Fold each of these.
Amino acid sequence: MKIIVTGFDPFGGEKINPSIECVKAFPEIEGVELIRLELPTVFKESAKRLNEVINEVKPDAVLSVGQAGGRPGITMERIAINVDDARIPDNISQQPIDETIQTKGAAAYFSTLPIKRIVKAIREAGIPVEVSNSAGTFVCNHIMYQALFAATKADKPFKAGFMHIPFIPEQTTDKPSLPLEESTKALQIAIETIRDYLNDEDIKVQEGAIF
């Protein structure tokens, strides 16, 4: 099984982005050919780079990872929406407002990874985790949407989704954080779960939210 795992470079004035650090750090996994990829925190260019690698390696799955500073734990994203609406500029000072990502794409795409199985496995390892129903409207949502859009057009079908991880303690003194080792372990568990259950129906357990 081939799985592309992506993380982003630092953005918003940060010196580190734990997403790419996790991607670099987690170990090789039996039965999986891992393609680790650092993406620029840049609208469009990130998708161009990802699509190049998708076309080259023809993966079975794509799991992208991004930083969600302020969230207290790991979040598996349920849905990506077809809009870029940037609260801050990306790394080349682009700041799109209410721009459609793909004019011929759906209004939204749901993750095609077994996100509830992943959440269950991470939780059983004692790491805080939940399903998220908003990937935001910055580059994280952009790349999740673009990966799922690409999957609808690919000659070889593949599945895709997105994981957000919190700040690490080195980044903040007043917001929630999680040690890099725990986020890295969560990513490893996610990949193992994808390997084991990629083509199975996801479990039906309550992971909804009131707001």
Amino acid sequence: MTQLSAQDERWLDAAVRYATPFLGTTGDNPCAAALIVDPHKQALIARAVTARGGRPHPEAIALENAGFDAAGATLYVTLEPCHHWGRTPPCADAIVRAGVMRVVIGVADPDPRTAQAGVERLESAGIEVVLAEHAPSVALHAGHMRHRVKARPYVTVMMAVSPDDKVVTPASGPARDWLDLQRSRSNAVLIGAATARHLDQQLAIALPGLASRTPLRVVLSGAEGLDRSLNLIGGFSGYRTAIIAETTVSIDAPVSVEVLRVKGTKGRPDLSASLAALADKGIQNLLVESGPRLTSALLLAGLVDCFGLITTAAGDTAGPAASSTGPMADLIREQGLVETGQQAHGAHTLKFFRRPA
């Protein structure tokens, strides 16, 4: 197994950039990308991303598009090619049959059906393999990794706060657009019952052309339950909705709304069990748009992988952002998340915090 070259890294970077806009569209399969490159001319021959819904896989699509030109080429793929029969044939076998001479892989697949087996199949056929720990590929497949390794989704919490650390509901502008973009790249968006009652919103994507990518909308019920008087539950929107509730709590919802029952305490669902229930449904990337109480509970339970903290004066303010004393940013840092960057858009500031690997 050879080392990653500077050219390899550039092509893997390009593969990640190509795949990123498709996050949230590939169902319960990882959103991977494959590029087939002429190694002498360093020219792109074909490219593909995991098909909508999860199948076919990108390697199969790219190889079909490349045809005979795949022979002798280099394949760059963000995730280790599969080597098991499922609803599609093994991608590793297709790569061998196509005559690809070299495969550069962004990150190994932890799925026990594939882990290292894809690499071994390629190497056994005499194909040169480079297995990189390519940071952008790792980030791209964070949801798949969490799902396979910890049996829960990758959890991104979003919260908008005012300069004095009050919760804000952004009405428009960059903050609102950023939230919609995150929704479009998630498999599900979760809110708590209190937020559902207070806002009574649809959780639909408002960005032009992206409404169809509105993810599964999930409400975490409290001890008092939920009913169809909420527009999110009883109103017709055409978007999928689910409720997570403790086993004894009364839920009044139409048959179109799925109710997931989990263990809990005093009518409140256990958070780890709730995330496991979503993972069982194939949810890999979960966006949480919760209020202070649920946000703090997730942080204190160590269940937050990424936090997007928006500071903006544009929107309706409510109570303090943190249910404990002190600013929300301090609570985020106390729970082991590290600030990894920020963006400024006029009067709006977005800070990213992530849990170290």
